[in-house]
Amino acid sequence: MRDFIAMGGYGFYIWTSYALTFFVLAINIIISRVKRRQILNELSNFHQTQAPVKDE
Amino acid sequence: MILVNWLNKIASPQRFYLFCGKWTPWLSLLFFILLSLGLYGGLVTAPADYQQGDAFRIIYVHVPAAWMSLFIYIVMATNAVVAIIWRIKVAEVSIICCAHIGAYFTFLALVTGSLWGKPMWGTWWTWDARLTSELVLLFLYLGIIALYNAYEDKRSASRAIAILTLVGVINIPIIHYSVVWWNTLHQGATVSKFDKPSIDTRMLIPLLEMGVAFSVYFFISLFQRARNEILQREFNSQWVKELVKEKSNA
Fold first, then answer.
1. Which of B107, B241, B243 to mutate to test the interface with A (most CBs of A within 10 A)?
2. Fewest CB atoms within 10 A around its CB: which of A46, A56, B2, B222?
3. Mind listing the pLDDT tens digit for each residue in A5-35?
4. pTM of this prediction?
5. Considering CB atoms only, which of A13, A36, A41 is closest to B228?
């Protein structure tokens, strides 16, 4: 296990690359999801002010 | 003919929106399966390189990211052609979504390359043809995003970036052949050449798995971003109103 983490002395470079890659890939998805929620909220408010929803 | 009919259908923003939503869970599942296989193969079963030792394992994130930076540009340019000739909304939307995802992958290719360069070449950065042309690609992506944001009207913005995208296509063969045309510090192609790939199969298979995993990730992200963009552009249409109402009641 320790050998696996050390990666023959290159652990720092390897694990930094992998961590950064997955961090960036995750952030990209999270940003879109947060934005989707914002858009749905904004549109919901906008549509309600435009034409009041009749059914309660 | 079936393909043309399908393309005609999918070109409607509403249908494309639904299509993206339907496929995202399946693509996510496929992504995680391929990613697990690729990571296990790359980090555990692949033998250490005879020259670079374990440091070569950076290849499993660096090379797929670099492939994606080029692949996404080609997808983006194809959409740009469709957007310019037929003015199809879905293609217009896709261009800007591709630009964002492409910028992320290009950034990753550059930074992981730097993290590989330091222990192997002894430097984080050098003005080598491959590295420089890849940096130009990052600036192209960022320039496309900046130009898009400079327009108030999203349809004119899309048309402007479609043209810029096509101008930038010239950089793609330059990046690919840079290691052939110039004497670079960056190594030559290992996989994409006419000869047999000069890499052990146990090293190659995880690389291909990671490559496919990243491509699947690209489509997941593209679908997600396209859905957001379509909602914003079609905010006044009946189907969006109904969809928003349904979502806010839930």
1. B241
2. A56
3. 888 889 999 999 999 999 999 999 999 999 9
4. 0.93
5. A36
